[in-house]
UniProtKB/TrEMBL annotation:
<comment type="similarity">
    <text>Belongs to the TAF7 family.</text>
</comment>
<dbReference type="Pfam" id="PF04658">
    <property type="entry name" value="TAFII55_N"/>
</dbReference>
<keyword id="KW-0804">Transcription</keyword>
<protein>
    <recommendedName>
        <fullName>TAFII55 protein conserved region domain-containing protein</fullName>
    </recommendedName>
</protein>
<dbReference type="InterPro" id="IPR006751">
    <property type="entry name" value="TAFII55_prot_cons_reg"/>
</dbReference>
<dbReference type="GO" id="GO:0051123">
    <property type="term" value="P:RNA polymerase II preinitiation complex assembly"/>
</dbReference>
<dbReference type="GO" id="GO:0016251">
    <property type="term" value="F:RNA polymerase II general transcription initiation factor activity"/>
</dbReference>
<feature type="domain" description="TAFII55 protein conserved region">
    <location>
        <begin position="8"/>
        <end position="158"/>
    </location>
</feature>
<keyword id="KW-0805">Transcription regulation</keyword>
<keyword id="KW-0539">Nucleus</keyword>
<dbReference type="GO" id="GO:0005669">
    <property type="term" value="C:transcription factor TFIID complex"/>
</dbReference>
<dbReference type="InterPro" id="IPR037817">
    <property type="entry name" value="TAF7"/>
</dbReference>
Amino acid sequence: MDDEKTQLEEQFILRLPKDEAREIRNMINYKPERISKYLKMDLNTADNSVTVSWCNKRLYGALKKLPTIVESYKTNICNNRSNLFKTADICYMAACSKDVDEITTDKVETIHGLCPPLKNVKKKRFRKTLFNKELALEAEWISKELYYLLSTDLEAVKKNVEDNNAPANSKQFSYSFY
């Protein structure tokens, strides 16, 4: 097989206004060989901006990171329609608009997915990270101390366990393990 056919591609989702999306879809369906003549895209990863030129129209957009990973597949490699071949992981979406003022490039990551069931997916389904530095340092210190105590406990010859939180009327007890 040729390396070009099996090589993974970098892909992203292009979200356009309805009129332009309909025109591009018709061009892809009926005259796919002419799409490269009419559709030009400029991606600027430094400021996450996208400029799409389509039939003397300019659309401006922002490159946003999706909260989930979408996989894309191909079916018709070497005229084999029964097998699916993974082509790429899609992690970005370019949301375009006709007005420059509507586009904000400051917020890179979106909290919503691609479809309505994934609304607020970033808040609902993923674990929240610890932002308080003091709590993070304390948790790290506690885990190190626990690791130290458990490792010294394994090396000990004799182990004594005492219950310091026992009720006042009960006897203090101690276990010895050998």
